[in-house]
Design brief:
Blueprint lengths: L2 H27 L5 E2 L7 E2 L4 E7 L7 E6 L2 E2 L7 E5 L3 E6 L8 E9 L2 E9 L1 E9 L4 E4 L4 E4 L1 E5 L3 E7 L13 E3 L6 E4 L8 E8 L6 E10 L3 E2 L8 E2 L4 E9 L5 E6 L2 E2 L7 E5 L3 E6 L8 E9 L2 E9 L1 E9 L4 E5 L3 E4 L1 E5 L3 E8 L2 E4 L14 E4 L8 E8 L6 E12 L2
Parallel strand pairs: 2-10, 11-18, 20-28, 29-36
Antiparallel strand pairs: 1-3, 3-7, 4-5, 4-8, 6-7, 8-9, 10-13, 12-16, 14-17, 15-16, 17-18, 19-21, 21-25, 22-23, 22-26, 24-25, 26-27, 28-31, 30-34, 32-33, 32-35, 35-36
GO molecular function, one term: axon guidance receptor activity
GO cellular component, one term: neuronal cell body
Keywords: Disulfide bond, Immunoglobulin domain, Signal
């Protein structure tokens, strides 16, 4: 073999051995991937675009990248997730990011020599947003109410309450009747409401992200009318002037009044009756009363929240008045006679009978029982005799002066033929 050809062949051999050695050396020097630690930026707000890079720091070749969310591999088809891969790095993009993206994200790099992985937590922050705000409350004295005010956000917003004063607008709860279970409670309990609970309130939510949010509501304390008990004076006589006052001792105004007699609304139709009203008082006035004014009188007080009523009985006392008086009687021995005395009055008059003879007066109760019928208002003599002739007197008395009397005579003219 010529020397020149031999030298050329040796050179080619040495070149191949050098290339092979370089390849072997590169293979021997290659190792498993090593990921450079990464983390998400702080203060990531919901709705923004977020990205993080997973970079292989070693001289690894032919690296495959996979991403996991809370241990579950991420698919490239997910709505707001994108993955961009290169030989030495992979980028995860979330656009837009939301609270549901809060999770542990893991990047895994793999080649034929092994794998490495690193995990970082994504904490998305969101300002407070109302989930539930309170509405205005209308309550009655003594009620207990619970008010709810709730907000979403990340971190979870703190809820606190204020009662706004007329001047400072900063009055914070200080009484035991206005209770919040703890600083972050979203419920406010108002127990046994009084007038002091009325006013403007504010619910505030904050979590340190952007601005606080506020919601105002009013507590309106209503009070049903309550009438102070009343009654008519006693011993009201015919012709007297009578008045009674219906006073609402508690109740939200405006208040309207109605009067009823025996269940029927009173309509002022003459000068003998009048009603005078003021914001919390109604006076019923009766002029020159008679027994026709007897009855059960009811005052009804109403406001926008309800009503109350109270009743009282008026009983007029009236002296006796004749309804029927007996006439003189002319009869014969043996006949039957009847005489009646009937009187009105309040209370009902009692009738007593007397016989007047020879300047002497005798009660018929002390005489023959045949004089009296079943009723004191009637006397009956079944068979008259000469001894029954004379003057009789009936008296009607009920304790109200004056009592009244009526006389009649019984004249006997012989026997019936």
């Amino acid at each position: 073999m010529p020397a020149l050809q031999f030298m050329k062949w040796n050179a080619q051999l040495y070149l191949k051995l050098f290339v092979l050695a370089a390849v072997v050396l590169e293979y021997i020097s290659a190792d498993a991937p090593e990921i450079q630690k990464f983390s998400f930026q702080d203060d990531i707000l919901e709705g923004k675009r977020v990205s993080v890079m997973c970079l292989v720091a070693s001289k690894s070749k032919a690296v495959n990248f996979n991403w996991f969310k809370n241990g579950k591999e991420i698919s490239s088809s997910e709505r707001n997730l994108k993955i961009k891969n290169d030989n030495e790095f992979s980028v995860l993009i979330l656009d837009p990011v939301n609270l549901q993206d809060n999770a542990n994200y893991t990047c895994k790099a793999t080649n034929i020599h092994g794998s490495d992985q690193h995990t970082a937590y994504l904490n998305v922050k969101a300002p407070p947003k109302w989930l539930e705000t309170p509405k205005d409350i209308i309550a009655t004295i003594g009620d207990s109410v619970i008010v709810t005010c709730d907000a979403s956000g990340s971190p979870k917003p703190r809820i606190y309450w204020k009662k706004l004063s007329d001047k400072m607008n900063t009055t914070i709860f200080s009484t035991s009747k206005e209770q919040v279970s703890n600083e972050s409670s979203h419920q406010l309990k108002l127990s046994s409401i009084t007038y002091d609970a009325a006013g403007l309130y504010e619910c505030i939510a904050e979590n340190g992200v952007l601005n606080k949010i506020r919601s105002n509501f009013s507590v309106i304390v209503r009070e049903l009318p309550e009438i102070e008990k009343f009654h008519f004076k006693e011993n009201v006589k015919e012709g007297d002037f009578v008045s009674v006052v219906c006073l609402v001792k508690t109740g939200s105004q405006p208040i309207t009044f109605l009067w009823y007699k025996n269940g029927n609304e009173l309509i002022i139709s003459n000068k003998k009756m009048s009603i005078e009203n003021s914001p919390v008082i109604s006076a019923l006035i009766l002029n020159s009363v008679t027994t026709e004014n007897d009855g059960n009188y009811t005052c009804v007080a109403k406001n926008n929240f309800g009503s109350d009523r109270h009743s009282a009985v008026l009983k007029i006392k009236a002296s006796p008045k004749w309804i029927n008086q007996p006439n003189n009687i002319i009869t014969v021995i043996g006949d039957a006679i009847t005489a009646s005395c009937i009187a009105s009055g309040s209370p009902t008059p009692q009738i007593t009978w007397r016989k007047i003879a020879d300047s002497r007066t005798q009660s018929l109760h002390s005489l023959n029982s045949t004089y009296l019928n079943n009723s004191d208002s009637t006397i009956k003599i079944s068979r008259v005799s000469y001894g029954d002739s004379g003057t009789f007197e009936c008296t009607a008395d009920n304790g109200i002066q004056p009592s009244i009397k009526a006389n009649f005579t019984v004249t006997i003219r012989g026997r019936r033929v």
